[in-house]
C-alpha cells in the first residue's frame, strides 16, 4: 500500500508542482512589488513558467529523455502562459519586449506546423481522428475531450437515434428501470439549480450565471449518459458477449472465456476490484464467472483485469437462456 501511494505521488508530482509554481508566479505579478518593478517581474515570471514546464516534461518522459517536439510543445505552452497569464502592468512590460514576443510567436508557430504535419500524416496512414490527435496532444486530454463531445452529441441529438444493434446480434436492455431514476434526479437538480441561481443573483450576478452554466452542462452530461444507456444495450454476438454500459464501458468477452453463471450474486464479489460491475444505481441480477482474465478499458479510470462480470439486465431470464444457447453452440 505504501509503495503504491509513493508511486502515485511520484506520478502526480510532475503535474502538480508546475501548476503550483506557475500559480504562485502569477500571484506574484499581482503584488505591489511587481507593479513597481514590472520589467524584472516579467522576466522572473517568464523564467519560472518556462522552467517549470520544461522540467516537468523532462520528468514525465521515459528515461527522462523527452523528444524534441515534446520540449517544443512545453515551450509553446509556456509562451502562451507568459504572454496571457501575467497581471497588469507586468503584461504590459512583456508586450513591450519585441524579442520576447517574437520568440514566443516563433515557438508557437513551429509547434503548430510540426504538430499539424504529424496529425495529417497519421490520418493518411489510416488512423482515426482521435488516434491522430493523441499523437499531437496528451492522450488523456484527447480521450477526455472525445468523451465530452460524444456525451454532448448524445444529449442534444440522441433523441432521434435508434439503438446500436449490429446485424445478427441479440440485444438486452438495462435502461428501463434506470432511466426513471435518472429523470427524477434531473428534475430535482433543475429545481436546485433554479433556487441557487435566484439566491446567488441577490449576491453576485456573475457568480450566479457561472453556477447556472455549470448546472446546465452537468444536466446535459447526465442526459447524455442516460441516452447512452438506452442506445447501447448488452449484446450477444457471434464473437462473444459484448458488455456495454452506455459509452462508459464497451468490452467484448469471448464465449470461451465464460466459465459459467454464478448461482447467487454475492456482495463481496460484486465489490471486488476484479469484478466488472455493470449495474448502475441498482443491484446486479446476473453474475458471470470467467476462466481467464479480461482487460477492461473504461472511458473513465485506469484499465484493469477482471475475472467476473456482474450485470443488471431488464429481462434476465431471456438473457440467461440466450447466453446458454450461445455457450452450447
Task: Explain how this protein is built.
By secondary structure, the chain is an alpha+beta fold. It has two domains: 2-129, no CATH class; 159-329, no CATH class. The chain is built from twelve helices and eight strands. It has helices at residues 2-28, 32-36, 38-60, 68-85, 90-95, 98-124, 129-134, 139-157, 178-201, 205-231, 267-271, 316-328, and strands at 170-172, 234-236, 240-245, 249-254, 258-261, 275-277, 286-296, 304-311. Helix 1 (2-28) runs antiparallel to helix 3, helix 3 packs antiparallel against helix 4 (68-85) and helix 4 packs across helix 6 (98-124). The longest helix is centred in the N-terminal third of the chain and has 27 residues, at 2-28. 22% of the residues are buried.
Q: Total number of β-strand segments?
A: 8
> What is the total domain count?
2
Q: Structural class of the secondary elements? A: alpha+beta
Strand content: 5-15%
Q: Report the radius of gyration as a whole number of Å.
A: 26 Å
For the biggest β-sheet, the strand order reads 1-2-3-4
The separation of the N and C termini measures: 45 Å
Percent helix, as a range, is 55-70%
The pLDDT mean sits at 84
The unreliable regions are none
Written as H for each helix and E for each strand, in order along the chain, the element string is HHHHHHHHEHHEEEEHEEEH
- Biggest sheet details: 4 strands, antiparallel
What would the principal axes of the Cα set say about the shape? globular
Amino acid at each position: 500500500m505504501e509503495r503504491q501511494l509513493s508511486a502515485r505521488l511520484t506520478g502526480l508530482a510532475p503535474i502538480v508542482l508546475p501548476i503550483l509554481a506557475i500559480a504562485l508566479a502569477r500571484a506574484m505579478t499581482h503584488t505591489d512589488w511587481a507593479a513597481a518593478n514590472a520589467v524584472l517581474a516579467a522576466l522572473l515570471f517568464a523564467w519560472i513558467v518556462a522552467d517549470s514546464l520544461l522540467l516537468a516534461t523532462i520528468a514525465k518522459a521515459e528515461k527522462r529523455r523527452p523528444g524534441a517536439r515534446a520540449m517544443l510543445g512545453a515551450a509553446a505552452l509556456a509562451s502562451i502562459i507568459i504572454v496571457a497569464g501575467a497581471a497588469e502592468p507586468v503584461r504590459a512590460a512583456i508586450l513591450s519586449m519585441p524579442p520576447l514576443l517574437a520568440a514566443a510567436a516563433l515557438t508557437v508557430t513551429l509547434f503548430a506546423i510540426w504538430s499539424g504535419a504529424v496529425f495529417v500524416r497519421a490520418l493518411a496512414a489510416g488512423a482515426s481522428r482521435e488516434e491522430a490527435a493523441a499523437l499531437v496532444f496528451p492522450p488523456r486530454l484527447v480521450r477526455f475531450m472525445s468523451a465530452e463531445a460524444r456525451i454532448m452529441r448524445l444529449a442534444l441529438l440522441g433523441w432521434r437515434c435508434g439503438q446500436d444493434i449490429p446485424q445478427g446480434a441479440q440485444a438486452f436492455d438495462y435502461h428501463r428501470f434506470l432511466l426513471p431514476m435518472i429523470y427524477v434526479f434531473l428534475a430535482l437538480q433543475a429545481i436546485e439549480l433554479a433556487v441557487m441561481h435566484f439566491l446567488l443573483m441577490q449576491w453576485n450576478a456573475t457568480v450566479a450565471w457561472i453556477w447556472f452554466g455549470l448546472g446546465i452542462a452537468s444536466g446535459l452530461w447526465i442526459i447524455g449518459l442516460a441516452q447512452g444507456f438506452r442506445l447501447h444495450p448488452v449484446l450477444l454476438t457471434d464473437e462473444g458477449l459484448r458488455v456495454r454500459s452506455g459509452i462508459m464501458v464497451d468490452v467484448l468477452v469471448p464465449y470461451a472465456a465464460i466459465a459459467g453463471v454464478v448461482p447467487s450474486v454475492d456482495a463481496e464479489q460484486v465489490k471486488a476490484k476484479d469484478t466488472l460491475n455493470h449495474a448502475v444505481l441498482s443491484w446486479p441480477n446476473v453474475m458471470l464467472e470467467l476462466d481467464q482474465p479480461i482487460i477492461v478499458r473504461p472511458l473513465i479510470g485506469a484499465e484493469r483485469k477482471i475475472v467476473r462480470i456482474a450485470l443488471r439486465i431488464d429481462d434476465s431470464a431471456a438473457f440467461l437462456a440466450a447466453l446458454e444457447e450461445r455457450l452450447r453452440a
